[in-house]
Task: structure prediction
Amino acid sequence: MNHYPQPIIALIKNLSRLPGIGGKTAERLAIHILRAPRREAEQLAHSILELKAKIRFCRRCFALSDSELCKICSDVERSDELLCVVEQPADMAAIEKSGAFKGRYHILQGVLSPMDGIGPDDIRLNELFDRLRHGDVKELVLATGTSVEGEATAAYIQQHVARMPVKVSRIASGVPVGGDLKYVDQVTLKKAMESRHAF
Result:
């Protein structure tokens, strides 16, 4: 890499810090940016700076937003009676792409993980419980992951809202539609068996 001028080396190093970008990909991206018209490079640089300057967390649900309330929290068509709890903004985005949920969200910004020193005060659990105490939520949908940490976080929430007048549900997990059983991992298959329902 020393055969490149210093500005290209610096860009390659910076690009390779991004998740999923190795040295070769970073090199290809750097050369692409170098060859692109100046205007494209300026637009890329501007969009990165604008992202850092304008994006923040929604004050209600902790989604990524460019205003005090995100688009979902501002949407009057959404149901205040349904609240879906997810781990990260990307999880909310995945559910939104499905078009299957028309309620509100609460993003925890992580999961409980005592091994990593992450306890209840380190994620947005207190804010969730405040929303439940002072809002109109009738059903709480737990959509945390099926990892040990995700399951533990869902169980913790369920225990803490047990005395509240809120129905608690958990998203189904198991064999994907069109999935072939012989290719499904054992944990997923176990979950599918445990979550079976009447046909």
The chain has a mean pLDDT of 91.
